[in-house]
Amino acid sequence: MNPSLKIVLVLLVVFLLLQIPIFNPEKNYVNADTKVDITDKYEVPMNIQMDLYVACYDCHSNYTEDYPWYYNIQPLSWWMNSHIKKAKQALNFSEFATYPRDTAVKKFESLHLVMKEQTMPLKSYLWLHEEAKLTDKQYQHLADWAKEMQQKVEQTINSTQD
Asked: Where is the Haem-binding domain positioned along the sequence (predicted)?
């Protein structure tokens, strides 16, 4: 048998074995109402909440709603799972109310910046998630809201230090 054919067959067998469901990572969905979502502690207008939900929550919360069909293909699911974990480490709206005020200030500041620069959602995410695309107006509203929240939380920190 041709050596290159052997390599292809071995790779195919390994690929097929990896498709066995026991190798799939756990999906990002907590089935409990934690009461520590950003909306539980901070004033989030409905339009802002909806924009965050549609454009951000799949990666930046404990509730990834719709997994695409290709999530069941290895190693794509491992890559996506790793991406979601990193996103949640950077910012998790489902646990935002647990952040200390100084951390919340930094998170709002970062949110303001990425919305102002329109760098989130990631372009690679938007290729397959058309519904997550934000308009310039939505980006501006999110950026303005995040800046306003940053300032409000900073004021509470300053008022307790006086």
From this structure: 12-150
Query: Distance between CA 48 and CA 134 in Å, rounded?
Result: 11
- pLDDT band for 6, please (50, 70, 90 cuts): confident
Q: Where are the domains of the chain?
A: 26-161
DSSP type of residue 135? P
Mean pLDDT across the chain: 88
Q: Which residues contact 142 (CB under 8 A, 6 or more apart)?
A: 48, 51, 52, 111, 115, 134
In order, the DSSP letters of 13-81 are: HHHHHHTSGGGSPPPSB--S--S-SHHHHS---HHHHHHHHHHTTTTSSSB-----GGGGSTTHHHHHH
Phi, psi of 87 (to 5 degrees): -60, -45
- Asked if residue 33 has pLDDT above 70, the reply is no
- Strand, helix or coil at 121? coil
pTM of this prediction?
Answer: 0.83
At 120 the three-state DSSP class reads coil
